[in-house]
Structure prediction request, 386 residues.
Amino acid sequence: MKSISEAIATLQASPVREMYDLASKAENLLDFTLGEPDFATPERIKEAAKKALDADCTHYTHNAGMLELREAISCYAKKNCRIASNPETEVFVGAGATEVLSLVIKTLVSQGEEVIVQTPMWPTLVGQIHICGGRAVPVEVREENGFVLKAEDIEKKISSKTKLIIVNTPHNPTGAVIPREEQLKIAELAENYDLYVIADEVYHRFVYDGIEHFSLASQEKYKKRVITIGSFSKTYAMTGWRLGWGIAEAGLVERITKLHEFYSSCTNTFAQYGAIEALRGDQGVVEWMKDEYDKRRRLVTEAIYSMKNLSCPQPAGAFYAFINIKEIDRDSMAFCKRLLKRTGVALAPGVGFGKEGDGYVRLCYANSVEKLKDGLERLSVFCQYQ
Prediction:
């Protein structure tokens, strides 16, 4: 029997998923591992999809997504991110931001080329780069800098093989937001070294303390080399709908669209009608969710600072607390396993976001206040005896 692809054979499951699987078997469980809103998809969005389904909107669409949806994305990105785009040629839709990101990486990265990523990082990135035959080159973001990615650190890692820089802001897992000035420095690096930049902005609606989200593609000078990625999952509590979007220059979108034909052809048709309603309908629910997350953010960070041997920088965006556990245990997986066994509280080990994340754990606070208070109380008692 011939062996399977080497790239696939060497893929490893994320420790975050391992913890999630362990948690599913635990008693008295309080699970904070996965980055998923605890809110249901708004009714108006579900009704739009139901109506489309009843109208037999169940056939294939354009590989890039329905034009009506791309038009809605283009309008949304202009209003919320100040990105100007032609919906016919510069916007495409995929099965979640995960597939969108995969399509972009697969289109850009060839065997042996390097991709610069900030670490700790969303673990799927490394696998996607590896499958293409590329190599992920990590640039560590450090707590003393508020976990903000720095252009000067990126430049030290650029080589003749570098093809792409991936920037995630607001950042998973730390909640850091890269300031406008630093993003512009990163864009200048891309200009000077002729690199592409993927701007992963799936949490762009969830920034706090008066911070304004900045999209690099809003700057005409850099637009040709920036691919912006967004998602419906977090913004509209639509994780299971699997819908994401990308905006890039027309020539690149044309190639991405061709590639999409060989993957899933197109995304779920009646779900796309729900996505149109999500973008065009009342946005009050998004602001309400943001306010709720802000309350939970403050609750979590204040509680963590009162605990023995724990600390946590105040996250500026997204809905994660990246908790420093180094005074208790630098092995984040061991810490999470003990915590789960003794208390039923499940957190994501920092090592699941790269080795630079060891010594930290991630708590997703997109959960009810009641659940968070219970989990934080259990965590506090656990830490007293460490």
About this structure: The longest helix spans residues 284-305. Residues 176 and 316 are 5 Å apart (CA to CA).
